[in-house]
Amino acid sequence: MATLVLGTVGRIYGGPLGAIVGSAVGGAIDRSILGDGGSGRDIGRLGNLAVQSAAYGEPIPFITGRMRVAGNLIWSSGITEMSTRSGGGKSVDSANSTYSYSASFAVGLAARKIAAIGRVWADGRLIRNATGAFLTPIEMRLHLGDEDQAPDPLIAAFEGPSGAPAYRGMAVAVFEDLPLAGYGNRIPNLTFEVIADAEAAHDAGVAIEALAAVNRRQLLTVEGSFPAISGHFSGRSGSLAAAIAPLAAIGGAAIAPNGRIVVRGEGGVPITIPEDDAQARAPGDLRPMERQRFQGGETLAAGVEIAFFDTSRDYQPGLQRVRRDIGGSIEQQTLACSMSPDEAKTMATSALARATAARLRSTIRLPWRYLALQPGAQIVIGDAAGTVWRVREARFENFVVSLDIERVRAGTIVAMQGDGGRAVAFNDVAAGETTIVVLDLPALPGELPTAPRLLIAAAGASPGWRRSAIEVSGDGGVSYVPLGIVEGGAVLGVALTALVIGSVYGWDRFGSVDIELLSDAMWLEGRSKVAVLAGGNIAILGDEIVQFAVAEALSPRRFRLSGLLRGRRGTEQAISTHEAGERFVLLDTPAMLAFDPPLEAIGRAYRFRATGVGDRSAVPIIGCARGKALAPLAPAHLQLSRRNGDILVNWKRRSRSGFGWPDFVDAPLGESSEAYRVEVLRDGILARQATVTMPQFFYSLADQVEDSGGDEVTIFVSQISAAVGPGEVVSATIRLV
Hints:
The protein has 7 helices and 44 strands. The chain has an 8-stranded mixed sheet with strand order 7-6-10-3-12-19-17-18. A hairpin with a 7-residue loop joins strand 26 and strand 27. The chain is 9% helix and 39% strand. By secondary structure, the protein is mainly beta. The model is unreliable at 1-39, 87-94 and 286-297 (pLDDT under 50).
C-alpha cells in the first residue's frame, strides 16, 4: 500500500527563503556492498527504501503573482528498486547486481488555483526550462487546483478510487517514476516557479485583495496606488492583518477599521479642509483651538534597505539599499515578495522619501461632520500651500474630531535602476534530440577485444544537449535495458565532399575532405605529424579509418581535413568507396559507450535508443554485431609468380595485435593457430578452395589443367579466426597465357 505523507520537502520559513538556501541539503544514503571472492556484488543498493521524512502540519503556501516555492510532499508510493545483472558468464553466483531507484510522488504547490508553472529546480539544478521542456527525462502531470479536478490516475491506481484524494482547490504536481540516481537515491528538494495570476500586471494591492478573498473578507477594499511586485508568498499561519500589514507598509498605506477594512495606498485625490474648519472647539469652550505643529523627535534614518527575492537571479535572496549622506541607522524591511532589482530600488527610494516627509507631524481638530475621516485618508488644509497630509490616527470626543496627521511626500518617485549582481547561470535550453551512430570497427589503438564489440557514439545538435542515457534491445524492440550514459557526446558529422582514392603506404599529401559537424559546440583541430603517428586525430569516414594532421576551419561547424593517413587499422579496402553525405565520427573512445554482446550473437541485430527528453518519439537505431574487432586483417604483399608452369602464391600475415610492429620483422600471430583460406577463381568462377597453415599456396600445372576454364586466374586469401572464421580478403590476378 502506498504511503500518504502530509508535510513539506523542506520547512518553509519566511517565505521560500528556506527552500532556496536549503536546496542542496539531502538525506543520508545507506549502501551495502556484499560478498567477496567469487561471489557477486550488490552495487549501489539502499538499505532503507522509506521515503524521506517530512514535517506534519506545515501551512500550504498561498501565492499571488509569480514566485519560486518549495511545495509540500503530500503523497508518495515509496521508492522503487530495480536491479540489473552483469558479468559472471554461466556462473550466477559471480554475477554483479547493480541497483537503481525511482519514486512516484505528489507535491502540493499552492492553496489556490494557479495559472501555470514555469521553471522547476531539483536540488537547485534546473530540470525544466521556461518553455516547459524538461531537460532530463521526467514524467510530470500538473493539476491546476480546480474545485472539480479529478484524482490523479497514478494515485488512484495505488490508493483505489475511494482512497485517492483529488486535492481540489490545491495546485498539485505529480511525478511518475522519477529516477533518483542523480539525487543521492532520494527524492530531491523540488522548487517551482508558480504563476498564480494570469494577468501580467501585478502590485502589492493585487496581493492584498487576493489574501482578503481567500480569507472570506469581502468588505476589504484597496484604494490608491501600490508599488509593483512580481509575486507574493504567504506561508505562515496567522491573521489576515498580519499577512497584509507588510504589503500595506511598502505601499505607504494605512488600514481604516470603519465597519469595513479599507487599505489606502499613496495617490488619489486628497480631501480639502477649509482653514476655518481646522479651528474647531469643544462646546462651552470660548477659546479657539490652535493647531499645533511639531518636529518629530525620532532620529532620521540614514537609509532604507529592502530584502526580497530577485527575479533576475532565479529568485535568489536580493538586497537593495538607498542611503543619505548622514549618520544614523538603516531601516530594514524583509518582504516575502519577488521583484526585479529596479522595482526594489524604487521601493526603497520611495520608502526613504516617505519617512523623511512624515517627520513633520501635526494634530488638528475638526467639527463632528468630519467623522468619516479614518486613518489613511489624505487631506489638504486650506492655508497649507498645497501640502498633503495623511491621517495617522482619528479620535472623536466632545463632538470634536481630533486627527494626528503626517506630511505626505510631494511628487512622484522616478523609477530607479538597481543592480542585482551576478547570478549563477543555469542552462535554460532544451536538450533536443540525440543522434546515435553505431560502429562495428576493427580494434582501435590500445584495444584487443575478446568478444564482439559495438561502439555507440551519441551527441545532440541543440546547444542545450549535455548527456543522454542509452538503452539496448536484443529482442526486436520488445524490451530495452540500460547500456549507460553518454556525457558530453562524441564529435559527429557528415562529409560535404567525396574523398578521392589515395595511398595507404604513406601520407596522402593531395587528398582532402570537407566535414560539417553536428553542433556549433563541436570542434576539430590539427595535430603535429608526430602526434598523429602516435594515434592522434583518428576518425571513421564512411567505412575507412583515417587520421588527419590539418583541420582548417571554413565556417561554423565546417572544416577541411588534409594531411591524411589512409586505410588505418586494416580498412584500406574502403578507400575507393567514399561519397558526399557519408558519416564522420572522431574516434574518442572515452566519449563513446562500448557494447560487447556474447560471441554467439555475431550476426544478430540490436536496437539502440536514447531516452532523453527530446528522444521520446525518436526511431531506434539498428546495429549488427558482425565481430569486426575479432576478424583477422587482410594479408599483405600478396604475390603470384610462375615456376615451370606452376603458380606460386606468397603473402605476409598481418595481425590486429601487431599494429605497433615492435621488432620490424614479422607481426605476431594474434590468433589461436595460423590458418588461411585460399580461393581460386577462373574467369570469375570458383574453381578450387583450400586451407593452408603457412603464408603460401602452390597452384600446380596439373591442378590448373584439372580446373580448366578461362585464361585468367584470381587468387583470394584471408586469414582464419577460430572465433569468427575468415577475415578480410586480399586478391591478385595472373594470366595463364
